[in-house]
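hiii, so i know i said id send this last week but things got crazy w the move. better late than never?? heres the sequnce for the chain we talked about at the cafe, plus the structure i predicted for it. fair warning i was half asleep when i ran it
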Amino acid sequence: MTATIEPEVGKSRRRKEDERLITGRTRWTDNIALPGMLHLAVLRSPLAHAKIVSIDTSAAKESAGVVAVYTAADLDPEGAIGMPCAWPITPDMAAPRRPVLASDRVNFAGEGVAVVVARSAAEAHDALEAIEVEYEDLPPVLDLEAALAEDAPLVHEELGSNKNAFWVFDSAEAGTGGNVEEALSSSEVVLKRRFRQQRLVPAFMEPRACVVDPTGAQLTMWSATQVPHILRVMSALTLGIPEHKLRVIAPDVGGGFGGKIGVLPEEMMTVLVANKLGKPVKWNESRSETMLAAHHGRDQIQDITISAKADGTVTGLKVELLANLGAYNGLVGPGVPILGAFMFNAIYKIPAYHFACTNVFTTTTLTDAYRGAGRPEATFAIERIMDELADELGMDPVELREKNWIKHEEFPFTTVCGLTYDSGNYEAATEKAKELFGYDALRREQKERREANDPVQLGIGISTFTEMCGLAPSRVLGSLDYGAGGWEYASLRMLPTGKVEVTTGASAHGQGHETAWSQIVADQLGVSFEDVEVLHGDTQSSHKGLDTYGSRSLVVGGIAIVKAAEKVVAKAKPIAAHLLECSEDDLEFSGGKFTVKGTDSSTTIQDIALAVFAAHNLPDGVEPSLDSDATFDPENFSFPHGTHLCAAEVDTETGQVKLRSYVCVDDVGKVVNPLIVEGQVHGGLAQGIAQALFEEAVHDESGTLTTGTFADYLLPSAADLPSFTTDRTETPSTTNPLGAKGVGEAGTIASTPAVVNAVVDAVRQFGVNDIEMPLTPMRVWNAVRNGTANAGGPGGEAGGGLGSIDASGGAQ
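okay and structure toks below
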């Protein structure tokens, strides 16, 4: 018999996995060394758009340590292999084949044209320099609007256009709201803005990697991937490998942020080469290859029109997007803007809505999911234009939001997009955030600084958000032509000694699944936290799953574990009744014990596990097993929300931005582990703030990536970020038994507009209403200078403390 164990859910447990991860005492893909293993390196095009005239590999074949050199003609002679796209958003969506290696033309700088296989990684990379490729330049396609012109050069000539797809949602046509054009024409205030979502690189800690061993009964692939189960299915379909003969393992993976959800040409070429040679082959990319050839994120032009009454009541919202897909369709890339389509209305009661998106091909690295995938882009646009509308109406931006948001007593609430938000309390989160932030005092200080013409101005930014996460349900995804479901799988194995093994289809890459899942199982079965082992990331031990992305791990995968645990208890109940010589109806289960009601007669789930193992005294016809599994398909998305407030100090003489304070109050429903939630929020804030102030992937006029290293692509360190003040409110979800909502993307979604709103607020008096991200000192300084010039006043007088500005653009 065991003592009653206090609840685990809600406890700040240190993560089980941290000891091995932080000390490096674990297995990453690049750690794997197999007998006779060879190494693969990829020769990448230096040009963004060119015909391949010839490839001479003869010298490379003679290089030291080289075993083989392959081109597309060797690996895919019939040109039949193409990387999969799982989200054809329209029936007529253009789907050019993305080859394993380019054969006749390259379409972005970094596209693979040949591979070297050698006895060491160094020898493979050295031999790349001996390959001679003759190219014939083609004009690059870089500008989204220019790419759609009739006379624009084409990325894929066979398509006849650079348009990938055109997707529309209209509330009037869908029957979920009014007509936008009528709202715009009849409203007292109509405001239009263009916002730019710059291109970003998912700068995960561990570069992509793959090892393939063809020598066993099964072909085994280790990959630094977020999606081992999806990779297995897609690899089988892409290469024609029988799925049951392919085992995919994601060992510990050093971050992903959406950047490791793809099915990669490099993974496919490693399989092809390993099969050709009959030996294990490893590919591991360098950091510069990651920057160049791993998929990028964001990259949209957003034209937003909002209409309102004079009192601030929003009457309509119109969104027109141009989305840059890069040179090819990613696994889910075409659908990323569509995820955002349902979130532009955010937390607001917008009566009329129209969304239209044109996806465009360019000669750049393809874009695909990046932390938040469509939701950060949508939140940025609506929160920026709400600030612009507040300024237009002379209202406090918090007051304007409060006037239009869904009140807590109105939940569940069906939005203008047809989604039903199950629960929330925007008032409570905002009130707590304002209190922690000292909102009124900061507004007073801001007023004083403006009146004193202080050269360092104070800006206050607000971002209220909600998101649809926990990618599901399957029927909804099917209606959007998504190529997979939204369910997740889990199984529980009760071992004879009372320990528990959990297998989960959710494959972690830093989220803390092993800890959180152990806490859930401990509460559900009444076993100790330490007695639970979580197995994941291997399609052989965890044979079924849809993996990890879209903040779905807890609200889908975690609920599958709850459902499996319920089945374990249900299986144990008749055995407990038999052992206790009572009716099942007389039993109650709590804290790991079956107890006969009104007595102290009881038995534990561990006792039953041992009895099942022995099978000496079981009821007739009862199977000697407690093991159970479950597949959970949610009835709805999860809708976390929150309010983020940022105070930014802007030096108007230099353009330097300093984040003075940052407060966020998030509502992620029932919290399993507050420590993990805090970590997720902090990491998300860092990424969202980085988009606002630091990060941007830039191509020059020829299509060459000029930010291909961390010397050029600026990632913030802890020293560049403020200390965050975080807190939570809790409105449990009504659509899952834990009451949980997703948290993995919340910080990223909300923080970018909060920071940009703060900086614009600091310099708005100089005629500035937008600054393109990232808000570098030069861009901020130029905005102040140009805004002041547009306002018609000299810098020193209109700007207050700007100093004199010389014609070359330098502040004196």
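btw The chain has a mean pLDDT of 95. thought thatd interest u
miss u guys!!
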